Amino acid sequence: MMAYKDPKKAKENYLRYRKRHLEEIREKDRIQKRIWRKENPEKVKETNRKCYLKYQKKRILDQRNYRLKSPEKVKESNRKCYYKHREERCKNMRDYRDKASPEKKKEWYQYVQNWHKENPLRRKEWHFAKKFEIVSHYTNEEFNCQNCGMVGISFLTIDHIEGRKKLRHDRNTGTGEVYRHILKNKFPSDFQILCFNCNMIKEILREKKVSQTRRSVWRRLHRKQLKIEVFSKISKPNPHCQCCGYDDVDGLSIDHINGRKKEGHGRNFTSSDLYSWLKRNDYPPGYQVLCLNCNAAKGQLEICPHKKMEMIQIE
Fold it and tell me: Which whole number is the average pLDDT over 294-312?
């Protein structure tokens, strides 16, 4: 009779063989598992479901603990995932909206409007955080206009160096979309930081194709003369900012002291409409001339920083 092998030696031989041919054994196991899964998909689903239910509570607790311990990593991974699948997700959303009924669209619009009314601070905080990050990067944390040197984040805005059309940003493109574009593309060189006054003057002086017919030329001249006339009446004797004293007409604007809504002037009520309306109504009270910097800062902070400084000095 053939003698039995020593079990210890047999085990040692098996372990040696396994070490030598470990990759081959693993590959065979993988192939067998794949074949079994293809042949038994229902059993695979059932086992996966049982496993998920068995460890569900533990998995949820682990995920919560991980989020609490490392929130920055979670935010970073979520952001990467969002930008990776953003185009596909936006396309799916557009398709879904197009197929939706008018009642459903109205319901969504109402929901968004209500959310903005209920959470105005959250939206403002997000915008300010993104603006702070972008302005600090482009100005090397100096927070000044790259043309005139005006200091203060509330006076600054983002300028498309070669115009909006190059990046396909039309007039309906909001500031939030511009912020997302800059952050997604890691601060491209197509942008710079200017104050609102310099940004407007740059746009006025920019070379552009305009109609040279007699009527068009007369309209442009009439609009400029009307602007100077209205500004001179409100900020006597010469057009100037009634907050900081800025006197370049191209950088001045009319400010509603109590806000547009109280006067019933919506977004479609243009500056030319406002000048004509003021002249027709004999310059009613409730309006003042401010430069674009002071007007923008007042809109963001409810009071211009120049006024704040004057109040502090008086106190």
Answer: 79
For residue 286, what are the contacts with CB-CB under 8 A and spacing of at least 6?
256, 257, 258, 263
State which of 176, 201, 226 marks the end of a domain: 201
User: 19 lies in a domain?
Assistant: no
- Greatest mean pLDDT range, 20-29, 69-78, 103-112, 262-271: 69-78
Distance CA 249, CA 224 (A): 9
Domain annotation covers residue 63? no
pLDDT computed for residue 192 by the predictor:
93
pLDDT (0 to 100) of residue 102: 86
Single pTM value for the model:
0.64
What are the tokens at 106? 């109205």
Last residue of a domain, one of 172, 201, 230: 201
Q: Are residues 192 and 130 in the same domain?
A: yes
Beta strands in 109-266 (DSSP E): 156-160, 191-195, 252-256
Q: Both tokens of residue 203?
A: 């746009």
**Is residue 31 situated within a structural domain?**
no
Residue 292 near residue 200, CB atoms below 8 Å: yes
- Amino acid present at 201: I
Looking at the chain, which runs of residues are DSSP E strands?
156-160, 191-195, 252-256, 287-291
Q: Which amino acid is at 300?
A: Q
Residue 242 in tokens: 């009634």
What is the count of structural domains for the chain? 3
Which residue in 157, 127, 162 sits closest to 144, CA to CA? 157
In sequence order, what are the residues at sequence separation of 6 or more whose Cβ sits closer than 8 angstroms to the Cβ of residue 289? 231, 234, 235, 239, 240, 241, 242, 252, 253, 254, 255
Q: Which residue has the tokens 């006054």?
A: 197
Q: Does residue 6 lie in a domain region?
A: no
Q: Are residues 99 and 133 in the same domain?
A: no
Q: What is the pLDDT of residue 70?
A: 92
Q: Which structural domain range is residue 261 located in?
A: 214-314
Question: Which tokens sit at 31?
Answer: 């192939």
Q: Which two tokens stand for residue 286?
A: 């409730």
